[in-house]
Amino acid sequence: MASEIRKLLPAMALIIVSAVAAWGISAAMRNRSAPAQEDQFSGQLGDAAAKNDGNLQKKFPVIIRHPEGPPIVDSGMLDFHGQSVMIACSTCHATQPPNTQTRTTADLDQFHKGLHVAHGNLSCLSCHNQNDYDSLRLADGTRLEFRDVMQLCAQCHGPQARDYQNGAHGGMTGHWDLSRGPRQRNNCIDCHDPHVPAYPTVRPVFPPIDRFPAAGAAH
Amino acid sequence: MSDSTPTQLPVLNNACSRRTALKAIGATLGAAAFARALAPLTEWTADLSVDEFLQKHYMELSPEELKAVFVRLEEETKQDYGADVTIADPRPLPGVKFGYALNLSICIGCRKCAEACHQENNHDRPSGNSYIRVLEMAKGSIDLEQGNVDYDHPVPHEDKFYMPVQCQQCDNPPCVHVCPVEATWKEEDGIVVVDYNWCIGCRYCEAACPYHARRFNWVKPQVPTEEINPDQGYLSNRIRPQGVIEKCTYCLHRTREGRMPACLEACPTGARVFGNLLDPDSEIRWVLANKRVFVLKEELGTRPSFFYFFDV
Fold this sequence. Notes:
heterodimer, A: alpha+beta, 7 helices, B: alpha/beta, Alpha-Beta Plaits, 2 domains, 3-stranded mixed β-sheet, two-stranded parallel sheet
């Protein structure tokens, strides 16, 4: 009897540990899916309208959405609730030494295998920080938080960053008149998947209806 | 008539002269013509209240009269469509002239703007009406005649570009010049508006517009109660009566309160830039100063407030 209990102990411990982990991860996911809070992008990518704060008129903020923190990756496994086990980058990369020879996901034989990447000739470590996988790196090696990803994009996509900065690139909602209300703006990766940045083709909605369709026309 | 005349039955006694007969015929025809002329009034009362028939031009209405009109229209909307709506009349903001720019390099032709317009502006549902028409055109030319609005394939097609066209809010608007009753005019912030209750439905403006931006309400608009946008403006998105012209107003019920137009908010790619042309720090002014903008059919001298550009 005692030996049976001893056999069960590791299993019970495993169950408790995985339950705690699942709870922690689901809490983290809830945090991540929360919309961006008011936080103006501190770098040079602020909004042109937001810069003109000199006059006496009260200005509402331009709120730029941004990722809450490092991404979490689907491990491909399911937990005991049948939900995907999501893991943070450093879970593996804290112990795994970086392989600078790996240029594309085709070179991988285990994790991230099959991830579609079509972003110029960039390799993984062009943007991901090999010294701290929970962050990004600029071209000069400076560490960059994931939430500040737009600075990273702006290194190569200058014209787009300039247009964005001046309110001529990127979707937005809210007020054109910032003295009357705030504005919400997308950030680069809301529309562009950083791994496959080309905007995808979409099915057009809302076709026009022909009031006088030709006989036999398919309308 | 003397006493010697033999007694006759009374009716025959009044021998009628030709003059009298002609008078009677004339009176009968006159009465019939009058009745025929008034006949539309019998149909009219069902759909059109006396108040509406007697309503003055928007410009001649006092604030109290306008308020009464809005209340009446809200009641009629409740009665006809079952929806509780608020009809307001935001006036042009001082020091504001609206401008719109559209980046043709970014637009993918998804028509989300046209859909948003349809919903925001309480358009007739069965006809799928919208103030925005998206033209699919071959790269390398801008020939509006060759534009196709009827495309139905994944967009953007690699050989095409997409040009949404809506009211250009011209500074020299031909549609306004041709209106015989001054039911349409240009306001101080540049928006060309229509008083739907003054419009007689002659459609001269529709013919005059070189951008095909005006629409005619052939039928009384059908909108399900739950889909009616209750935030309405008298000169913009209130439900239009049958037989009048309507057009894009840059969503003045939103934009005169500082908000973005519905089509801009719906744009998933950020191809649209909206703002105050009189504010040198506005985004639209940055676009005009830094992009090679052009207007449609510049040679016509309409001077649009809507600009297009490509990224170079």
